[in-house]
Amino acid sequence: MPRISRRNFVAALGAASLSARVSAAQPAPVAPGSLSNRRPNVILMICDDLGYGDLGCYGSQLPTPNLDRMASEGARFLHYNGGHPICSASRGALMTGRYSTRTGIRPVYRPKDDDGIPATETTIASILRDQHYRTLCIGKWHLGQAPGHAPTDHGYDHYFGMPWSVDMKPATLFHDTQVLEEDTDRSLLTPRYARAAVDFIEQGSSQPFFLHLAFNYPHIPIDASPRFKGKSKLGIYGDAVMEIDWAVGEVLAAIQRKGLDDNTLILFTGDHGPWYQGYTGPSRGRKGTTYEGGFRVPMLVRWRNTIPAGELPRARCGHLDILPTLANICGAKLPAAPLDGVDITPVLAGSKAPKRTAPTLYFSGLHAGFDFQCARLDNWKLRFSQYTHDVYVLGTEPGDNLWLLQPELYDLDVDPGESYDVAAEHPDLVRQILTQVDAVMATFPDRAQEAWKRLRESPEPALGPAGAAARPLKQPKA
């Protein structure tokens, strides 16, 4: 099949520009004619609640040979973040290139909800189908299933899967918008998804394809098929991850059998940090928190003989960047709405990407997703608000989101665990980040701006040592 050489790819992408917010115009071209008349196939795989350190290629003891091979043959990000620390909002950011606080996508959608991703939002599937891609979504969509919000309403030709989390009832399995099984066997989801993915790849067509394969695990209640239960020797979490790795191997084998290795771009990631089990690597915090452990996820990208293999230790990227990047590579048109991600094709080509000129924002998942707690500029992360209690701890509520008496600054290059506050040594940087955050928030919808203004103007900053849960200055009366 026609393909570009690595030399042409790197040359074409080396000059691609980045900006804090991608314009709504046509993306920077990959170079006229360099992709011949054919765009690459794209496979985007995502797990639910997978830890940054849960793959062997990220230091885990879990057996993940297929993903480790994918890492050795492709690019492995060391600093890659989900779009949000909660499921639906992170997946929305991935699919649209926009913060959920901007789009109105809620942190979590449930089976009985009648809303979901707004009809006005443009997804990766939409822009690729406009380029005559065949599109299929398999697995956990989690952006709504009511009319107007299902995958087939947002760019996918077909859908197969359980569209929400495995802890939600009923465990309904859908084909497009039709119910296949009212209460499916959740232990068989991963192998059934793998079979559907392989069948789609093997159909064959003159059209390129976009396959979105979203595993429901290792979200709790964790499960695996009988074939893998007990096989990892590291509990049911290890079994579930091992089965996901097997499924990835099935997809890679199908691509090879069809002779598509050199014309298929494959991405593998997670939605956010792990919940009660799973390894966050060196990062502090877990799912639901705005610490790095709540956001940082693995990201593997493989396009054989095109993307240079190796680690990307300095590239700080995330879910918001995927839509503009795929638009550039696949020659698709960007949505009219402003994006929060940037085109990272220069990073994939092995060259150093220009710096972002606006901070990356960290919203939390409570209070409709409008709690704003941190911002990162390059390696510097500023924490300016915090909940009064830990998030996602059984039997507790997060309480109020309070402005900290003293914002905390962490250098993630040397302190990935956010353990050493250095705000006192860099007061100018603290002011710079807050000034830039004010400017970015002025572009958000009114409700988000109002929430930010209330937080900034809080008359009662939180008292507490750096890194602690916030405590109000005024203690409640006895």
Please give the radius of gyration in angstroms. 21 Å
Second rung of CATH, namely the architecture of the largest domain:
3-Layer(aba) Sandwich
What characterizes the major β-sheet? 10 strands, mixed
What is the count of distinct domains? 2
| Class derived from helix and strand content | alpha/beta
Question: What would you note in describing this structure?
Answer:
By secondary structure, the chain is an alpha/beta fold. It folds into two domains: 21-348, Alkaline Phosphatase, subunit A (3-Layer(aba) Sandwich); 360-472, Arylsulfatase, C-terminal domain (2-Layer Sandwich). 24% of the residues lie in helices and 19% in strands. The chain has twelve helices and 16 strands. It has helices spanning 6-13, 65-73, 87-96, 100-103, 124-129, 189-202, 235-257, 292-295, 322-330, 345-348, 427-441, 446-456, and strands at residues 41-47, 75-81, 134-139, 158-161, 173-175, 178-181, 209-214, 264-270, 299-302, 310-318, 360-363, 372-377, 380-387, 401-411, 462-463, 471-472. Strands 6-5-4-3-7-1-8-9-2-10 form a ten-stranded mixed beta sheet. Strands 11-12-13-14 form a four-stranded antiparallel beta sheet, with helices on one face. Strand 11 and strand 12 form a beta hairpin. Helix 6 (189-202) runs parallel beside helix 7 (235-257). The longest helix is centred in the middle third of the chain and has 23 residues, at 235-257. Residues 1-37 have low confidence and may be disordered.
